[in-house]
Amino acid sequence: MERLDALLRGEAPSHILPFLWMKGEDNETIREELVKIEECGIREICLESRPHPDFCGPGWWENLDFILPEARKRGMRVWILDDDKFPTGHANGGFIRNPEKKKVYLAERHMDICGPCRSGAVLVENFLQPDGKLLGILAVPKPDGQTLAVSGDGIMDLTDRYENGFVYFDLPPGPYRLFVLYTTQTGGGREDYMNLLDSDSVRVLIDEVHEKHYARYPEYFGNTIAGFFSDEPELGNVNGYPFDNTMGQKDRKLPWSGQLEAALREKWGDDFLADLPALWYESGEKTPGIRVTYMDEMTGLVRTCFSGQLGSWCEAHGVEYIGHIIEDDNAHTRMACSIGHYFREMEGQHMAGIDVVHHQIVPGFTEPVHQWIAGDRDGEFFHFGLAKLGSSAAHIQANKKGRALCEIFGNYGWAEGNSLMKWLTNHMLVRGINTFTPHAFSMQENDRDCPPHFYARGRNPGFACFAALMKYMNRSAHLLSEGIHMADAAILYHAESEWSAGNAMFFHKPGRMLMERQLDYDVVPADMLRENTASIEEGQLVLGKEKYPCLILPFSRYLDGETARFLVSAARKGLKVFVIDALPEADTLGRPLPPGWDQSAQTVSLSEIGEAVEKWEEKLGNRELTVKDGERTLRSFLLRRPDGLTAMYFNESVSRPVKARVSIRDKAYGSVTVYDPWRNRAESYYLKGQEFPLSLDPGEAVFVVLDKNIQSTQPFPVCTGTQPLCVDWKLSRAQWPETDFTGERLLRAGEELPNLNGPGYWPSFTGVYRYECLFQGEKEDRKCYKLLIPEASDCVRVKLNDTDLGLLAGFPARADITAALKDGENRLELQVFTTLVWSRKDGASTHLQIPATGITEIPVVECYETGQEADKEERNK
């Protein structure tokens, strides 16, 4: 309870570092924005350098000369986005000045030739791009004319037969494909960008950005300057955002560097050149092994040259390195706009990062086909996999210190109000995300760059509610930080399996089956399953501080060989291993799996894995909290600390309530404390039969704390009566930021409450709608009263009898009205704040369904029995 007590005292460190758009504003404007950020309880910012007109130039230094002392005076920390362009890798134009160090690609051109042939020739000089450097020329047999496959055997190296732009050859009978293999710096993705596989190339970014900041502000490093943020660095071998860029795609350039070439030559020896065509075309049995080796070495260099080098530089200079990659639509194991292996890229960072922007996550869209700005997939990954990547890395990579960061809210458009933001916040919290970069604060009037912008120069009617949301976010994140996450299973990361076969099952498929049964998991990369990293204790997989009762292997034709050997040993020590659908055929290099492998795992179907894990947990008898009668939409997160347990439950349904019970294994717990981060209040209740009720409306979350030292005699309140406010409502409105309400209208009792931004009302209005009514109340001692607002948009301020009861977001929602309620006539005022979508009609908002504005369902006064009366009511039920 120490952490909860600190929260109730108003003590919590920062878990929020929003982007602050930097566009060269004057100092007074910057100061005003910092004041507004501070009003939100936010004590860190991340300077978004991308839109600044003079990054690392006089204009940028002038801004930082003001911001850093101003931040220090306010006790704020500053992060710096580490480049002048999006994504990270342009190095502030460093590769225009150092073109020899920019990205390099491996490329191939080919044509078909046929034998028998003596002294044949092909003009290949034109196959090379102007800067192309020839690696080699091969004649590769074609096994058939029906596919693009080539043979892995009988390959002839013609490199030494290249002369004067022609290659000369003698061929035996049969069809061949003539490959010209070369490297180039053109024709791939973004020009003048960093090569993540080359230490010297990455050093250009450090010299052009990091070193320049350190040279100017060394006294701020490690205190006011917290560190640097990389935004979506990419391999960039292909232009744009093809999320499916895997091995085996023709006409695609591949990431390359001298360091990668040296590593592959060492691995493949004399077969180096002959193995390369298999990166694009099927080449028989050796294909999976070649592709896995390439991806393994390539992503290992990303770890070493890029994130490892940046992380080490930051550590040496007293700051930290954070950020995220593109994970979208399962791209995190792939190339192009992503990085090839999520966990390897994250190793150098000091927080595990993800982002949710562009409508990737929308309530209710949990299936694979889900339209968002950049595509129409994969809602299932976004709901059941994305956040688990970040929280899992935070749990198992020691340098993260348990911190998982999410860049959130960005470019959903002005249609995204505080209610949706609260839902997204809960979605992330219950999956273990505990640090946030809200996207974004902008100091430009009517900025059309990736809204929403939270203060919007005073134009956002919902800003006061946003400030309340930020305090809710920070308190919740702190409550769910710095403990031991208690997972029911580990799931093997599918990277190597996908590299080898391409049809491997995604890790989030079984993850979904667990989450829909209120079972939690971490995803674990094969890199961690080594004897010197992972261990088995009392039949559980141990990674750092984390313990997993079982390990799940998603279906794949191939399994990493070292992982297989570890699992044979682990199974002998008692670890339960589940394999989805069928056992792998071989290891990822095409070799037989180790002896005893087939006896080391239990095969279960995807649909049965949740039940199988649940039964295994019941057999072990070590599950601390178990949900009874839970719904598929209910999510859970459990954390252990020395003084007890902390749990969060969130009903993600858009329409169905959840009524369940949570049983507690340890009988030493006699009470449960329910914490409300929105109001920063907590109440303890005694347990009956080692259970407590879980009743959640759609979109509602609850936080509970169990402490053996807390023994309450108070029962849970029981709702014993409801009073729908079927009364006349006086309606008026104020155009934001004005506060004078005008244009009164009467909404008669019994009439349907309308969409106030709908037809017949005010479709372009942005501001505040005020609902006023009188109602008769009956107030009794020792009872609690709440006002339920079943449906509203976007956020609501509640005033009862001139007492301000605060703001609400995310509906249904309740306000405690006990203190303000009178026995007799009561005057209720509800102020509804709109979003700016109705007036600004921004492009990003076209991808988001907009709820009806106003109070659209009749509010209800609820009466709750407390104390002994509540106990009687519960017994009667």
Automatic annotation (TrEMBL):
This is Glycosyl hydrolases family 2, sugar binding domain. PANTHER family: DNA-BINDING PROTEIN (PUTATIVE SECRETED PROTEIN)-RELATED, SECRETED PROTEIN. It holds the Pfam family Glyco_hydro_106.
